[in-house]
């Protein structure tokens, strides 16, 4: 068995990002890491990483026929990973993630279970619901910031702000992804915004979501919590989102949307950095 295709199936960059989001959530709730339960925080990272990997693998399992059209080089449609093997892999990842969450408290387990239910609901049926399905995915992206807060105490306003910006920006990315996947989605009856209303309108929806995320970022300035480091990092992040929004509106084609979809990952990573600088 080759390991490489299973690593690709996991989407390690996405999984690491969610694991880091848990740590950022912990930091926002308690900026002094010496007060953290290091073992519990490490388990929180593992939970975020494995449950994200679970959702990625499960999504590719359910999307294998669509990916044969949109992304034939992915591990399952290319034959590198069998569908049955992907299911076993997904089950293993979810078992690890839910088990580690039980070791960090009932509240953490409930959030992890909610994330798992959202992932299953989206991959099995929710993606056919268009924007609602996109929001289900984004809920899984927002939860880690609250999860991290629960790991070290009680989530603060900054946890909610980080979760909200992640939710909006990722929903925009999912709408953008719908433009990229238009051909296969249309063939298999997946009712994305792009399928239902066209690529141009989908681009407007995505740009509106990116802009909404940007509009939330000045809140720490008005509450007196913003630091110079945060303001600099978030300014770069906001400019990135606005740039990608303009590019998408100018070129809502499959290739243009693919470029924007990839750019947004970088802006989301910068956003993570910005929130870690709230205390510096």
Q: Characteristics of this structure?
A:
about 280 residues, Four Helix Bundle (Hemerythrin (Met), subunit A), globular, Tetracycline Repressor, domain 2, 14 helices
Any chance you could write out the topology, listing elements then pairs?
Layout lengths: L3 H7 L1 H18 L8 H25 L1 H7 L12 H20 L3 H19 L6 H22 L4 H24 L1 H6 L5 H5 L1 H18 L2 H5 L4 H23 L3 H23 L4
Helix pairs in contact: 2-3, 2-7, 2-14, 3-5, 3-6, 3-7, 5-6, 6-7, 7-8, 8-11, 8-14, 11-13, 13-14
Shape: globular
- Largest sheet features: none
How many domains?
A: 2
Mean pLDDT: 93
What is the rounded distance between the termini?
Answer: 47 Å
If helices are DSSP runs of H or I spanning 4 or more residues, what is the number of helices? 14
Work out the helicity level: over 70%
Q: Indicate the structural class.
A: mainly alpha
H/E element sequence: HHHHHHHHHHHHHH
- CATH architecture field of the largest domain: Orthogonal Bundle
Rounded Rg: 18 Å
Proportion of residues in β-strands: under 5%
Task: Please report the first level of CATH classification, the CATH class of the largest domain.
Answer: Mainly Alpha
CATH topology of the largest domain: Tetracycline Repressor, domain 2
Question: Can you tell me the CATH superfamily of the largest domain?
Answer: UbiA prenyltransferase
Total strand segments: 0
Quaternary state, please?
Answer: single chain
Q: Uncertain spans, ≥5 residues at pLDDT below 50?
A: none
């Amino acid at each position: 068995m080759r390991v490489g295709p299973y690593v690709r199936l996991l989407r390690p960059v996405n999984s690491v990002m969610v694991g880091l989001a848990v740590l950022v959530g912990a930091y926002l709730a308690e900026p002094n890491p010496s007060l953290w339960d290091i073992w519990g925080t490490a388990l929180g990272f593992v939970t975020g990483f494995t449950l994200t990997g679970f959702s990625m693998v499960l999504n590719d399992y359910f999307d294998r026929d669509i990916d044969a059209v949109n992304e034939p080089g992915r591990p399952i449609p290319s034959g590198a990973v069998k569908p049955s093997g992907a299911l076993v892999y997904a089950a293993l990842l979810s078992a690890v993630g839910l088990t580690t969450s039980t070791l960090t408290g009932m509240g953490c387990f409930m959030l992890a279970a909610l994330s798992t239910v959202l992932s299953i609901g989206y991959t099995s049926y929710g993606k056919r619901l268009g924007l609602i399905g996109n929001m289900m995915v984004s809920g899984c992206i927002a939860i880690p910031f609250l999860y991290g807060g629960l790991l070290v105490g009680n989530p603060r306003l900054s946890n909610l702000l980080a979760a909200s910006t992640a939710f909006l920006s990722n929903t925009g990315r999912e709408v953008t992804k719908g433009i990229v996947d238009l051909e296969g989605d249309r063939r298999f009856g997946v009712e994305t915004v792009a399928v239902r209303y066209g690529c141009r309108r989908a681009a407007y929806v995505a740009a509106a979501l990116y802009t909404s995320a940007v509009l939330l970022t000045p809140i720490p300035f008005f509450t007196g919590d913003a630091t110079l480091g945060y303001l600099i990092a978030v300014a770069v992040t906001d400019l990135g989102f606005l740039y990608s929004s303009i590019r998408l509106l100018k070129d809502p084609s499959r290739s243009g949307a693919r470029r924007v979809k990839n750019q947004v990952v970088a802006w989301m990573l910068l956003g993570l950095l910005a929130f870690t600088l709230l205390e510096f």
